[in-house]
Write a structure and sequence with these properties.
Elements lengths: L6 H6 L2 H5 L3 H11 L5 H10 L2 H4 L4 H4 L9 E3 L6 E6 L2 E9 L1 H6 L1 H17 L4 E11 L5 H21 L3 E8 L8 E11 L14 E6 L9 H4 L19 H14 L5 E6 L4 H13 L2 E5 L12 H6 L5 E6 L4 H10 L4 E8 L3 E6 L2 E7 H4 L14 H9 L9 H9 L8 H4 L19 E4 L6 E7 L2 H6 L1 H18 L3 E10 L6 H21 L3 E7 L3 E2 L2 E2 L3 E10 L16 E5 L10 H7 L11 H16 L5 E4 L5 H10 L5 E6 L3 H6 L6 E5 L4 H7 L3 E8 L3 E6 L2 E7 H16 L4
Parallel strand pairs: 4-5, 9-12, 16-17, 23-26
Antiparallel strand pairs: 1-2, 2-3, 3-6, 4-6, 7-10, 7-11, 8-10, 9-11, 12-13, 14-15, 15-20, 16-20, 18-19, 21-24, 21-25, 22-24, 23-25, 26-27
């Protein structure tokens, strides 16, 4: 049990600082309450005013995102975004980070990250239909990073597989800056009928507040404030990491999806960061009401728990519901039917107060809006990063490869490029029987039951570009995610984000945030892909060094017909191979640059959003007119890697390609806005008439060989089996290292 200090001790000993409040914030709390806060109140303010809950440093930047659009039903502000897909159906989706917990306890931290994002989605009334992830680690090949990689994946797979929600896609990248601070971002997509959409509101004076789910323990206390500060490697933070039980969550999902059919339900929200405190305060503040909770009624896993512990615990698998007064038993019966505990723990009140009682004693009395909509907002100073002008003056980086074959295989074996089978094989993709895409390539695709429609989804980002030029990198992140969807035949609808940065009080880090968010916003406007939900994770650094700015873009698109589904693998011998878009010598932030120099400098590939939009539109139209047999966007590693991956996926086919110009540029540049597509000869004229930006570079062959000439000189002549082996085995070999 926590040893509680009295209000005078809290002030004199500055205990509020350890809880997460600054001196100025503590004085503001005193001004709001007109007295010193007690121990429980101090903890509540510290959690609700933490970066993780209040977004106090990032809120001014987030307000610049475009959030409205033709298909948007519900944008930021609720548990997850809701986007219309026609036929009175919608998709619900959001991304969430669990970085600090995953560093301290990689299995449990990653597992509960999945559990939390799934609750965000089904709290809206949606059935979870797919999971994705976006992960960042240090360089594989040492014992510590190998352990983090293995355990994070094991944790995410354990939770998602137990829930029987398929993991359909994601991405994993590796760079030195994540050595002490891995990034673990989880995304969930759900399906819902318009009539079932729920909001997390505590409306209706006199209505009852019901706690449903797992009992409350002492795990995860102050998890929100822990995730709003730097993680010191020598400190023990294991008590801040909650422990999950996916079996309970599975029953909780079924119960909640049945409960939403009752008109007795007024509002529902999951207990995420800051647990019972955040869910209750946010639901009341959104409804313009107050709330009173009685702690002795809260199901408790451990003896003698205090109000402070129960209010700030982040025990998993818990939901808070508001139900019409007099109809509580209807809702409780549904939960009991699914073997889920549900009890009344409070009521909605007219006064906009947040009242906590324990055995008749008042433990907190706080104006509810002070915890939510009136939480402090900071306009932090920013300063252009010192390295940025140096990189700008350096300009475009040129590269010259002496041994093309050696470089090609080195790229294929780079962990960021190589086959992530060691991760994919851990996840159950067959759950629910609606997954239409194969693992490891492009976007995930899930069919919509009883229709011919499907949803495509992806998660993507390149933090190296963001580091070199945050604004350009932000644009590229959105564009590349959209290209992933277009390449499978889907029309991008909207996005969620996972914004991962270092310490925002560092002026150069805040500048990175400003510029990358500006770039994301600009790309969203141009490509007409609004932001409907997201998450911010700051203080991602250790030993004083920030990670690369790493905003992850999770995007969802619609295939109005599964006939539009397009593979990224070669389809048929004799098909023509085209590159859409021009190639320039752009190597800043590339895989090749790191191989050659061991770092990143100069400027990243540039992006013309008008050209990007045009290429995406042309490819999507050509796919829907049946002119394209396969499609893939050109990304990390350049054209040679893209061609190799398309051949690996086809197994028996090969390529014969003729390129011109500088071989290093033609093969390995990471110029943006490019697609590789194959076209059946019967569609050649129609395709070339439609897509004038396409250049025919070769043909698909019936032999599983990889042949590339540059200016009529053979630079690569490889067997498909050799390429596949290099790409498939690279990560598995690194994981065997015990350094």
């Amino acid at each position: 049990m926590v040893q509680e200090l009295d209000p005078k001790q809290i002030e004199e000993e500055k205990a509020y600082v350890d809880m997460g409040l600054s001196n100025e914030e503590y004085e503001k709390v005193k001004s709001i309450l007109q007295r010193r806060p007690n121990y429980t109140e101090t903890g509540i303010f510290a959690s609700m005013w933490s970066e993780h809950c209040s977004y106090k440093s990032s809120k001014p930047l987030l307000s610049t995102f475009p959030t409205k659009g033709e298909h948007v039903i519900m944008g930021p502000g609720e548990g997850a975004g809701v986007v219309d897909i026609g036929d009175e159906q919608a998709v619900v989706f959001k991304m969430e980070s669990h970085n600090s917990p995953s560093y301290v306890e990689p299995f449990e931290g990653a597992a509960t990250g999945v559990g939390g994002i799934v609750r965000d989605v089904f709290s809206m009334g949606a059935k979870p239909i797919a999971l994705l992830n976006s992960l960042r680690f240090g360089q594989l090949g040492n014992k510590k990073t190998n352990h983090l990689y293995t355990e994070v994946i094991r944790g995410m797979a354990h939770y998602g597989n137990t829930l029987e929600v398929p993991t359909v896609g994601g991405e994993i990248q590796f760079d030195d800056c994540y050595e002490e601070n891995p990034l673990v971002n989880a995304m969930c997509v759900g399906l819902i009928n318009h009539e079932d959409i729920q909001k997390g509101i505590a409306a209706g004076t006199g209505n009852s507040v019901i706690y449903a789910g797992r009992d409350t323990g002492r795990d995860g206390i102050h998890g929100a404030t822990f995730s709003s500060d730097e993680v010191a490697a020598e400190e023990d933070h294991t008590s801040s990491v909650a422990i999950g039980d996916p079996e309970i969550e599975k029953r909780l999902i079924d119960a909640c999806l049945e409960v939403i059919q009752s008109d007795a339900l007024v509002g529902m929200q999951d207990m995420g960061a800051a647990g019972l405190t955040s869910s209750a305060a946010e639901m009341a503040s959104k409804a313009g009401t107050g709330i009173s909770l009685y702690m002795e009624k809260v199901p408790q896993r451990e003896e003698n728990m205090s109000a402070y512990e129960m209010m700030l615990s982040e025990s998993q698998e818990r939901m808070l519901l508001v139900v019409e007064h007099g109809r509580e038993q209807e809702i409780i019966d549904v939960f009991q039917k699914h073997d889920v505990e549900a009890v009344v723990i409070g009521e909605v009140i007219e006064d906009k107060e947040f009242n906590i009682f324990h055995h008749g004693e008042s433990k907190a009395s706080i104006p509810v809006d002070a915890l939510d909509k009136d939480a402090p907002v900071y306009h932090l100073p920013s300063k252009e990063a010192a390295y940025y002008q140096k990189f700008q003056k350096r300009g475009s980086v040129t590269m010259q490869v002496e041994d093309v074959k050696e470089t090609f295989y080195e790229l294929l074996k780079r962990p960021t490029i190589a086959n992530k089978q060691t991760a994919y094989e851990a996840f159950n993709r067959d759950a629910q029987g609606q997954v239409l895409s194969q693992s490891g390539f492009g976007a995930g695709i899930v069919g919509i039951p009883h229709t011919d429609k499907a949803i495509a989804m992806t998660a993507d980002s390149n933090a190296r570009y963001m580091y070199l030029d945050p604004e350009v990198g932000g644009k590229i992140a959105v564009a590349e995610a959209a290209r992933n969807l277009v390449a499978v035949g889907a029309r991008p609808l909207a996005l969620t984000d996972g914004l991962n940065y270092g310490n925002p009080t560092n002026e150069e880090v805040f500048w990175q945030m400003e510029k990358s968010i500006q770039g994301i916003s600009t790309a969203c406007e141009t490509l007409d892909v609004p932001v409907v939900s997201g998450n911010v994770s700051l203080y991602n650094q250790s030993a004083g060094e920030p990670i690369f700015p790493t905003p992850i873009i999770g995007m969802v698109g619609l295939l109005e017909s599964t006939d539009y589904m397009t593979s990224n693998s070669l389809q048929e011998a004799g098909d023509l191979i085209y590159v859409i878009g021009d190639t320039a010598a752009e190597f800043g932030g590339s895989e090749l640059q790191h191989i050659v120099t061991g770092g990143y400098e100069g400027i990243p590939p540039q992006l013309d959003l008008a050209k990007e939009q045009k290429h995406q539109q042309l490819v999507l139209e050509a796919i829907r007119e049946g002119l394209i047999a396969s499609a893939e966007d050109v990304a990390e590693g350049g054209l040679a890697v893209t061609l190799a991956e398309s051949m690996i996926g086809s197994e028996a086919l090969g390529i014969d390609v003729q390129l011109t110009g500088d071989a290093t540029t033609a093969l390995f540049s990471e110029t943006q806005s490019r697609f590789v597509v194959t076209v059946h000869p019967s569609n050649q004229k129609a395709f070339e008439k439609k897509v004038k930006e396409a250049t025919n570079i070769g043909t698909v062959t019936s032999e599983n060989t990889f042949n590339i000439q540059v200016d009529e000189e053979v630079v690569l002549e490889e067997k498909g089996e050799t390429i596949s082996t290099a790409w498939n085995n690279a990560i598995a070999d690194l994981l065997k290292s015990t350094k």
